[in-house]
Amino acid sequence: MVPIGVHLTAVREHANYCWAPMASPEKVPSVVAEGWYYWRYEQIDEFIEQVSAEQLELEFRTQIEALLETDLDFLMSDEPRRIIEEKGIILLDYRPLQKAWREINCR
Predict the structure, then answer these.
(1) Segment holding 11, helix H or strand E
(2) Whole-model pTM?
(3) Which helix (H) or strand (E) element contains residue 39?
(4) In 3-state terms, what secondary structure has residue 26?
(5) How many CB atoms lie under 10 A from the CB of residue 60?
(6) Domain boundaries, the chain
(7) 21 near 28, Cβ under 8 Å?
(8) Which helix (H) or strand (E) covers residue 58, if one does?
(9) pLDDT digit string, tens, across residues 7-51
């Protein structure tokens, strides 16, 4: 077994990034700002003041479920897998999620 970490997100670093929730925006309206995109990092204080904990939990659970549905078998051979398990290295290939995010949010 290879342990992994999951980077959950609810804000976008730059205004021109089109990060949006993976949950339906209608179900998590406090998680989104203008244009159904995440709040910008510069707006973090405003975001925190108004975000619903239940809606944020729904968004995070949706992100985790998307990851679990992704094929995590991205290592090409047994040798890298052996080294990772031996050393206890934690890594995550996020490229499948990036593709899914773009398809969902950058229409």
Answers:
(1) strand 11-12
(2) 0.66
(3) strand 39-40
(4) coil
(5) 18
(6) 11-105
(7) yes
(8) helix 53-69
(9) 788 998 877 777 889 999 999 999 999 888 899 989 999 999 999
